[in-house]
Amino acid sequence: MELNLRILQNETNFKDLEKKIFKIVCKQAQEALKKLLEDIDQAILESRDKDKFKVKDIKKRTLDTLFGEVTIERRYYKDSNDEFRFLLDEYLNIPANERQSPALKEIALDLVKELPYRKAADKIDNILETSASHTAIFNWVQREGAKLSKEAETKQIDLFRDGLIPAAENEDRKEIEHLFVEVDGIHIPLQKDDKEKGELKLGMSYQSWEKRHPMSDEYNLTGKKYYGGVFSSDEFWKETAAEMYEDYSFSNGSISVLCGDGADWITTGLEFVPQVKVRFLDEYHLNKKLFRKLGRSEFVPKLLDNIEENDIDKLRENLKKARQYRQKKKDKEKVDELEGYLLKNWEFIQDKKNGNLGLPDEIRGLGAMESNIDKVLANRFKKRGMRWSREGARNLAKIIIADRNNTLEKHLNRINWEFKTDDLRKAYNTVQKKYSRSETEVLKATMPALKGPKSGQDWVKGLKNISDPMTNNSIV
Fold first, then answer.
1. pLDDT digits (tens, 9 = 90+) for 418-428
2. Count of other CB atoms within 10 angstroms of residue 439
3. Domain ranges (residues) in the chain
4. Helix/strand/coil (H/E/C) assignment for every residue in 458-471
């Protein structure tokens, strides 16, 4: 009770009290981790092959963790091949040139999906008892995003060069009856590039629609997955097709529907999407084009009626009238551009009303891509006045897309510094045999709370698990 009151003495509000206790807990966690790692280093020292590994020095190493900076001292060995090694680093699989812990990196990567690099660094500095520079966070994104890009590239090369379908995550690929594929792009400002802007491409597939709840008038997309994060249309379609073959099983009866605006690069997808039978121009982009070129003109509903009635002659007639109605040259040019757009995509506009395409009777509004591209990419890339390198944008986009597909955590698990459990177990067993039960108490972290009257409480048991590496370690 005396300790609790002492903590309260200089605090006047709960927030400050909360922060003070958080700092105390972080400090204890730093000490516990330092003790744990140095205990493991001691165990390695005593269990090593003494003829093979000679101690040459003791050197410091600092790690930035969620609860702050931890500096340890560990042995530096010379092996029988005259190579110098840190066995502790090897046993715990800590990379030689990395200072930040995997958990700290994971939080940073989570923040940069929504925030600029500098703001993400500020958040870490303000919330945790640690820090990470915006440059370090940028480098992590580039490194991990590049790995995701390389994986995607390898899959598409295997498929399109070598004819190898990517291995599925599980043995059973989902059999596809209908797959709806919507694609779009966002134009982002580029830096150090021949062009001022580049189009970052994004795709989304889904299998159907379902009500949010039985009485709802709103629907969710089912089986949703995202693709892309690249600038090249050829690269986009090859990567997308490879992932589709990885996830799904297509038969002759499968039908894929490709939907988007009238861009030529989208139509190119007809060559790549598995079992694609239909190319639609979605209603969102159609209406957007009509209102952008004609505004709230009386001709807009007339043109929509012509489209609904599949009357291309009447459509041309109304476009001619709309052009004559306009006085300014630039407004006449807008009508010409609209006419070219509608005639070029007439087939794709009409396909949706064709009942002989083998599609479900009720196709809900296609055009979900626009809202999704805002949620996935546009809010991060376009609305903060930033300029991007192509590589930097691609790598961040890959991180964001992997997160949306719930595969980012699995990817990050590869950089979790997985322990060499066999070596650690051997070191533990050797030390366990050497010392009696009472002597092993030396290896335990010393915190007064562990032995005091509160020792039976859950929070103290948690600290004991942290501070008692040899008797509580999950690898034992």
1. 899 998 888 88
2. 10
3. 2-101+417-472, 283-364
4. HHHHHHHHHHCHHH
Give the three-class secondary structure for 208.
Answer: strand
Residue whose entry in the numeric block shows the structure tokens 């009508």 = 335
Question: What is the distance between the terminal CA atoms of the chain, rounded to a whole angstrom?
Answer: 37
What's the gap between Cα 419 and its chain centre? 25
Average pLDDT over residues 105-110: 92
The rounded distance, in Å, linking the Cα atoms of 441 and 411 is 39
> Cα 292 from chain centroid?
34
Residue 445 has pLDDT above 50, yes or no: no
Which residues lie below 8 Å from residue 26, measured CB to CB, with a gap of 6+? 67, 68, 129
Give mean pLDDT, residues 346-373.
68
Closest CA to 352 of 437, 280, 296: 280
Q: Where are the beta strands (DSSP E) in 282-409?
A: none
Report the relative pairing of strands 178-189 and 197-206 from DSSP bridges. antiparallel
Residue 418 is given by DSSP the state: -
pLDDT band at 332 (very low <50, low <70, confident <90, very high): very high
| d(C-alpha 219, C-alpha 364), whole Å | 9
**Residue of 117 and 216 predicted with greater confidence:** 117
Q: What's the whole-model pTM score?
A: 0.80
Calpha distance 466→321 (Å, rounded): 79
